[in-house]
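Reviewer 2 asked us to include a model.

Predict the structure of this chain.
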Amino acid sequence: MGSVDFYITASGPTLEAAFKQAREDAAGEHGHGGYTGTIAEKHEVTLIHTVPLTEDDAMKHAYGLIDICDPRVDDKWGPAGALPIRADGESTWLLFGCASY
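Predicted model (structure tokens):
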């Protein structure tokens, strides 16, 4: 099987809570059988850096990391990457990486 890239935003009181909810939402929408090509396939998340970015800048940074096959996010069995996004209210992250498909 191959892999596909994913990019989603998620909010929550902590990165871990937002990641968990994003996984549950993806599994509910795409199934629990594996090989969904979504964040549902991820079991860990890695915070790439702590400085919040605009959503556009976070997307550009994530695309760049995927394009250069950054080892922190380039393994379909490894962790998802996370970048904090500047937002009013609850903490928000861009979650991204490649997932088995």
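Residues 3-100 form one domain. The longest helix spans residues 15-30. We have added this to the supplementary material.
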